[in-house]
């Protein structure tokens, strides 16, 4: 592509509101432009990188047996009502009405859409397993869109969904996707880590995030320095003290409180006011009992606790409330430091102390008349804390270190969360109706572009790895007005192209300094400069990443480039 005819608006100045390197450089080097907060245009160079990344993703997905389709961004609210997420997703879901006042959402992800599709089209076990994927635009009204492409409100995602008749089949596809993801990020040249992730609001169990290691990452990773153990910090608790009173629960009335209960529900069932409910709970984690008290005004803590315990509801309580109902000094309770309190109603909460009501060690039951002092010893629950650097690794191997990461991919065993809600069933070999088992697998494609830029840059600009670079070669004629130089450059622009190399040809009538500065900024792996020695058929070849430069006869140019790429 001739630069004189392209559209590569570079900037000399660092844009004021761009905080991180990738955002600054992608703007300055003419890859992207912002149109609204968290909404970006991919300029021609940005579009080329995007396409390179997408090509790698497609290759690996296809190789793993996934099949590409394309679903709409505009989704009828009915689908989201069927899954329940219309009500639970919150303000991140972009909602709109059509001219007939019908509700729609702009898809933040496509579980509903794909589940409905497969439900309607696949009726028999013979058509399963099935893995479908798309590369498509997503919308999320993020609270804090920032860092350019890293957290957008409109962004590009590769999302895959798999449908199965058995857990084993899901496991198999999950492992294939995990492999495919590792290949994709490796081929992009990234320094990344797969970590155990939070199964949060979607439910389900096995889930891993793929984290690109970077100081500006919003996630913290706890990893072992001596094994493969790595987890999102949200998922890596250390619980050091946990002891339940051996005293059996006495004089307690067992009441049936079927299913998962919020404080309000439990309170109303027991005919007490929610205010009177103790807002703290005991949990059973791997046969250990843990009392969770975290300050409600620390959103991050709430989320951690919620994730930690797979909780579906987090309720808040003031320290005063806790103190009152627990009938003890709140400060003495403190797993996490306790003038702080929260309530977590976990899916698998074992004992919920709610105004003298205690969750039984049995799903769907609570006890009335629990006395915290008598029925368990609060002070013995005092040492719950989250993992820290220097702790022994939970797998017993090595010591925990922390690193920051950018989440570029996420694989997830969904189970029947969507298929059940949306009635995605099939007939098994005996003609019985069975619910499909699902997995979902996302890659933030546009985020990935920024993550690569974040890892591959120096003080002069971007330094694209060859696999995703917008072009292979940046060909520059130092002086476009010099006939000899221009002719040689023109000639080799054609020849390199014919040899299958992708060439950006800076044929602009600009000063050499401007061209070199732009070239460094843009970061194409190989620069070929046609200058003073054009008459001898000698050009300079320079490697962007290492700065290594050499004079090469044009006869050896193609071989030299191939060797360096
Ligand atoms: P995050 O924790 O960063 O908000 P997420 O866990 O909400 O991401 P997923 O629902 O797992 O995101 O979506 C799959 C992938 O889409 C993520 O792994 C990430 O790479 C990408 N992604 C999510 N939100 C954004 C966004 N706002 N901008 C760009 N990419 C995003
Ligand atoms: Mg998010
Ligand atoms: Mg996440
Ligand atoms: Mg995620």
UniProtKB/TrEMBL annotation:
Subunit structure: Homodimer.
Designated name of the protein: Proline--tRNA ligase
Gene3D superfamilies: Anticodon-binding domain, Bira Bifunctional Protein, Domain 2, YbaK/aminoacyl-tRNA synthetase-associated domain
Key words of the record: Aminoacyl-tRNA synthetase, ATP-binding, Cytoplasm, Ligase, Nucleotide-binding, Protein biosynthesis
BP-aspect Gene Ontology terms: prolyl-tRNA aminoacylation
Entry-linked PANTHER family: MITOCHONDRIAL RIBOSOME PROTEIN L39/PROLYL-TRNA LIGASE FAMILY MEMBER, PROLINE--TRNA LIGASE
Organism annotation: Saccharococcus thermophilus
Its EC number(s): 6.1.1.15
Chain's role: Catalyzes the attachment of proline to tRNA(Pro) in a two-step reaction: proline is first activated by ATP to form Pro-AMP and then transferred to the acceptor end of tRNA(Pro). As ProRS can inadvertently accommodate and process non-cognate amino acids such as alanine and cysteine, to avoid such errors it has two additional distinct editing activities against alanine. One activity is designated as 'pretransfer' editing and involves the tRNA(Pro)-independent hydrolysis of activated Ala-AMP.
Pfam families referenced in this protein's UniProt entry, alphabetically: HGTP_anticodon, tRNA-synt_2b, tRNA_edit
GO (cellular component) term, any one: cytosol
Gene Ontology MF, one: proline-tRNA ligase activity
Compartments, record wording: Cytoplasm
Entry's family note: Belongs to the class-II aminoacyl-tRNA synthetase family. ProS type 1 subfamily.
Domain notes: Consists of three domains: the N-terminal catalytic domain, the editing domain and the C-terminal anticodon-binding domain.
InterPro entries: aa-tRNA-synt_IIb, aa-tRNA-synth_II, aa-tRNA-synth_II/BPL/LPL, Anticodon-bd, Anticodon-bd_dom_sf, Pro-tRNA-ligase_IIa, Pro-tRNA-synth_IIa_bac-type, Pro-tRNA-Synthase_IIa_type1
């Amino acid at each position: 592509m001739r630069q004189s005819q392209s559209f590569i608006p570079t900037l000399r100045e660092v844009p004021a509101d761009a905080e991180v390197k990738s955002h600054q450089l992608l703007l300055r080097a003419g890859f992207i432009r912002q149109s609204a907060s968290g909404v970006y245009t991919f300029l021609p160079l940005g579009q080329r990188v995007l396409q390179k990344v997408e090509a790698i993703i497609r290759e690996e997905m296809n190789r793993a047996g996934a099949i590409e389709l394309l679903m709409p961004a505009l989704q009828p609210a009915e689908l989201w009502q069927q899954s329940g997420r219309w009500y639970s997703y919150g303000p991140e879901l972009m909602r709109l009405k059509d001219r007939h006042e019908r509700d729609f959402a702009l898809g933040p992800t496509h579980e509903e859409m794909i589940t409905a599709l497969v439900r309607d089209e696949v009726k028999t076990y013979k058509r399963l397993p099935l893995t479908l994927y798309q590369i498509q635009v997503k919308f999320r009204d993020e609270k804090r869109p920032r860092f350019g492409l890293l957290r957008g409100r409109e962004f590009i995602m590769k999302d895959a969904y798999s449908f199965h008749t058995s857990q084993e089949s899901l496991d198999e596809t999950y492992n294939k996707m995990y492999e495919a993801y590792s290949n994709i990020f490796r081929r992009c040249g990234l320094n990344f880590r797969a970590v155990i992730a939070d199964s949060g609001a979607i439910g389900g169990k096995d889930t891993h995030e793929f984290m690109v290691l970077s100081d500006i990452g919003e996630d913290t990773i706890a990893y072992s320095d001596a094994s493969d153990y790595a987890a999102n910090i949200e998922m890596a608790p250390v619980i050091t003290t946990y002891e339940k009173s051996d005293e059996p629960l006495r004089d307690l009335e067992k009441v049936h409180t079927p299913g998962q209960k919020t404080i309000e529900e439990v309170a109303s069932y027991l005919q007490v006011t929610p205010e009177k409910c103790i807002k703290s709970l005991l949990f059973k984690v791997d046969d250990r009992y843990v009392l969770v008290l975290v300050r409600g005004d620390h959103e991050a803590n709430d989320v951690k606790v919620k994730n930690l315990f797979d909780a579906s509801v987090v309720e808040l309580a003031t320290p005063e409330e806790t103190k009152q109902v627990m009938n003890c000094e709140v400060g003495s309770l403190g797993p996490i430091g306790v003038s702080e309190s929260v309530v977590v109603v976990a899916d698998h909460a074992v004992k919920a102390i709610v105004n003298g009501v205690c969750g039984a060690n049995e799903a769907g039951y609570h006890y009335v008349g629990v006395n915290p002092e008598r029925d368990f010893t609060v002070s013995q629950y005092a040492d719950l804390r989250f993992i820290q650097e220097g702790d022994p690794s939970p797998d017993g191997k090595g010591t925990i270190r922390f690193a920051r990461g950018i989440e570029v991919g996420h694989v997830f065993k969904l189970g029947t969360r969507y298929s059940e809600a949306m009635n995605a069933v099939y007939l098994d070999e005996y003609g019985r109706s069975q619910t499909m088992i699902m997995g979902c697998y996302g890659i933030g494609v546009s985020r990935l572009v920024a993550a690569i830029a974040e890892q591959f840059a120096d003080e002069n600009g971007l330094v694209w790895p060859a696999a995703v670079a917008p072009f292979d070669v940046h060909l520059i004629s130092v002086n476009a007005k010099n006939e000899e130089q221009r002719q040689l450059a023109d000639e080799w622009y054609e020849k390199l192209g014919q040899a299958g190399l992708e060439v950006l040809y800076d044929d602009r009538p600009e000063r050499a300094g401007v061209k070199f500065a732009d070239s460094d900024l843009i970061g194409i792996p190989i620069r070929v400069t046609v200058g003073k020695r054009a008459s001898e058929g000698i050009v300079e070849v320079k490697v962007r990443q290492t700065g290594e430069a050499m004079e090469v006869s044009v006869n050896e140019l193609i071989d030299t480039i191939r060797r360096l790429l």
